[in-house]
Structure formats: structure tokens, C-alpha cells
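REQUEST FORM: STRUCTURE PREDICTION
Request ID: SP-0412
Submitted by: Lab K.M.
Chain count: 1
Length (residues): 155
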Amino acid sequence: ISLHDNVKAMKNIGYILIIGFIACKPSNQIGEMMGVPKETTLHDTHWMAVELDGQALTADIKRPYLVLSSDNRVSGFGGCNTISGSYEHSGKKLTFGNIISTKMFCESAKDLEPAFLKILTETTHYTIHDHQLVFYTQDQVRARFISEALGSDKK
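STATUS: Completed
RESULT:
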């Protein structure tokens, strides 16, 4: 066996050990190794709506989304129009105020956008778990969002 063959075999063993090491890690640690944060934060995350008032939003529509900045500003998309405004939060309490939007008419979002905006104005608190944000009005689930990388496709 040549020196070249020994080096090649050692590389293969190294790759197998790395794969084995990764495979034995808990899934959240693999995510950390790949640059995925362990915990998603409310701020500076692109939150894509996946459910409003118990109704799943299908992938064939332009879904609403929000980005809440650390300076208590919110921006996003309501299903037809861009939206912006302010919010307040303390602990898990969350309220939105002064939400404004552009005023285009979209036949496909004529019911979706008003429902989404109404949920924002009625939100009282939130939870975040496993990269999912949930808005509540008192103890009723009103909206569910999933976190997406900022700058991704907004559909």
C-alpha cells in the first residue's frame, strides 16, 4: 500500500468520523453548527403567516408576513398591501398600534388582509416555540407564523 493510499484512507476515516459525530448530536446542536439559531427571537425575524383564526393559509397565495424591529416598529405585508406601524411588548404581552397600509385593491386578498389587520389590532400576547410565533387574544389563538430568513421569497 502506497503513502497516497494511506492518506486517502485516513481522509475517508476522517469523513466517516465527522458524519458520525454530527449524526450523534441532538438536532438543535446540528442546527447551531449550520448557523441556525437555537432560539428564534421576536425581533428582526421574518414571520410568515401560516394560519389565521384557525384557517391554514395555502402556499398558492401571497401570505401576510411581519418583521418586528427592536425599536418597536413593525413592517410587513397584509396579503395585498405593505403595512407598517408600531408595537409595544413587555414579557409576553404584545399590542400593535397605528398600523397603516398602502391602499391597493386586490380581489384575491379582499377578505384575507382585513382579517389579518383585525387580528393585529386585537392581539394581547404571544408565544414563540420551535421557530413558530403564535398571537393570542386573551386565551384564543388568533394567528400562527413561522420564522424565515430575512430577504427570502415573501410568497
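NOTES: Residues 52 and 143 are 5 Å apart (CA to CA).
Reviewed by: T.R.
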